[in-house]
Design brief:
Helix content: 40-55%
Number of helices: 2
Structural class: alpha+beta
Oligomer: single chain
Order of helices and strands: EEHH
Radius of gyration: 23 Å
Number of strands: 2
Distance between the termini: 42 Å
Strand order of the largest sheet: 1-2
Strand content: 5-15%
Length: about 80
């Protein structure tokens, strides 16, 4: 088992520089990039979309999506995912 090393360097009386050294070959819980991306996307969609919708319904924010052409919205949805 290797050690994690934390270095603290004084840059000035009020500034400190903290660095962390950890060997990557010792990381046991590696994440698959695709699974991590899917998890982040689902989490943000589940948390952001309802809040955005509520803010629209109560008039806190205004959206001009209704003025955009349908073709442009479909293109952006396909292009951006």
């Amino acid at each position: 088992m290797s050690q994690v090393v934390i270095n603290v360097e004084d840059l000035s009386p009020v500034k400190k520089k903290v660095s962390l050294e950890m060997p990557w070959d010792d990381v046991k819980n590696e994440l698959d990039a695709v699974k991590a991306t899917i998890a982040i996307t689902v989490f943000t969609a589940v948390t952001y979309v309802p809040v955005y919708a509520l803010l629209l319904v109560f008039g806190v924010i205004k959206s001009h999506l209704g003025t955009a052409p349908w073709g442009e919205m479909v293109f952006q949805a396909v292009y951006q995912g």
